[in-house]
Specification:
By secondary structure, this protein is of the alpha/beta class. Helices cover 33% and strands 13% of the residues. The protein has 12 helices and 12 strands. The radius of gyration is 20 Å and the shape is globular.
Length: 378
């Protein structure tokens, strides 16, 4: 399937570490919020109101204009049954849509295979970062993995060999214990990742880009700028993926400053990303999903928050129908699981199914493993 510049494109950003949803989308009118967050509660005058009951963390203020435009959807209470509090396991579940068995195939890898079954374009799916993310892993599906787009097409053969070895090592350390080192090596060879396919093509993208937006080049900013460069180059990429540094959102301590800085990084870079797409007149066919593998506990621990379950996700784009989707988890003590976990009330696979069917035009059942009620944000 040969892509055109008008085909729908999905960009996915993982906020690794379990972002605290309760201090990201804040139930400021609920007195339980102050009860549970005596240390970390955000002063009401600083909260960016969305309506009479919910507001954004002040560091998320750059995204408020997209809410006002009706381009920002907030998915409340997102999660899955019997949520795992293990980073590795929960990330794996979100990546493979397999909450019971250990999955091997990533949902975005399955999507790339459906979009380009004959591998006509080695750049149908591109990861921005080192190694091969689980979400894009699929035997026989080539995925280019870009560490630095500006130098990607200029690597020497020795440097490419080093990147091949790094990709193998990163993937092997993460998944080797589960599927075996030999299987990892065979998997990477079969996908063609070790060949760094598409390097020369990707290397042409920066020369076509005239960026005026300022990104924060710390955690995800550089990668989001690179997404715009590749999309602007019209190389037929349909799926973009990047992730914040491993477990950076794991705010057990010093959360007041730590999460504020992290959310500022996310919001300003997403704002720059959207503005950049608009500046280049290429925003109409891009939808972006931001998610974290789980939320945090309702009660703070005096300095931070511990691993929880129900969380929050965001979908942003020109074709998005903004608003609140799902219900905010109940803060009543009797409704909290295990003494402090917010109940999820909508399965993350419903969000995936909505993006796959209503945006990408695909049958979601073989990709997410069943039928899930869709939202109406597309």
């Amino acid at each position: 399937m040969v892509s055109t510049s008008k085909d729908p494109v999905l960009a996915v950003v993982s906020l690794s570490g379990g972002n605290d949803g309760m201090n990201t989308v804040i139930p400021y009118s609920n007195p339980r919020y102050r009860d549970y967050r005596p240390t970390l509660g955000i002063p009401e005058e600083m909260i960016v109101p969305l309506n009479d009951t919910l507001g954004l963390h002040p560091s998320m203020a750059p995204l408020k204009k997209y809410w006002d435009e009706g381009k920002l959807a907030i998915i409340q209470g997102i999660g899955y049954p019997n949520g795992s509090l293990s980073h590795f396991r929960s990330m794996d579940i979100w990546a493979t849509c397999e909450p019971v068995e250990l999955g091997v195939e990533g949902w975005l890898g399955r999507l790339v295979k459906e979009l380009d079954p004959n591998k006509e374009n080695v750049l149908t799916g591109v990861n921005f970062g080192r190694g091969l993310p689980r979400a894009l892993a699929m035997e026989g599906v080539p995925v280019a993995s870009v560490g630095d787009l500006n130098s990607y097409g200029l690597l020497t053969e020795l440097e490419r060999e080093e990147q091949r070895n790094e990709a193998l090592d990163l993937f092997g350390r993460m998944y080797g214990p589960a599927i075996g080192r030999g299987a990892v090596e065979d998997f990477i060879r079969s996908t063609g990742v070790e060949a760094m396919m598409g390097a020369d093509i990707l290397g042409t993208a920066p020369g076509m880009y005239r960026g005026e937006e300022e990104y924060l080049l710390g955690n995800i900013g550089g990668y989001m700028r690179d997404m715009v460069q590749v999309h602007n180059a019209n190389l037929g990429t349909r799926v973009f993926f990047t992730t914040a540094p491993y477990n950076i959102f794991d705010t057990h301590a010093n959360q007041a400053v730590g999460q504020s800085n992290l959310l500022n990084d996310v919001a300003r870079n997403v704002d720059s990303f959207m503005s950049d797409l608009r500046h280049h007149d290429i925003s109409d066919n891009v939808v972006t999903l931001l998610y974290s593998e789980f939320g945090r506990r309702a009660m703070d621990n005096g300095s931070g928050t511990d691993h929880g379950t129900g969380g929050v996700a965001f979908v942003i784009g020109e074709q998005v129908k903004g608003g609140l989707y799902g219900e905010y988890p109940s803060l009543e003590p009797g409704d909290l699981e295990d003494g402090g976990n917010l109940l999820h009330n909508n399965d993350f696979r419903s969000t995936y199914a909505t993006l796959l069917e209503n945006w990408m035009g695909m049958d979601s059942k073989p990709i997410v493993g069943g039928t899930w009620e869709k939202h109406s944000f597309i």
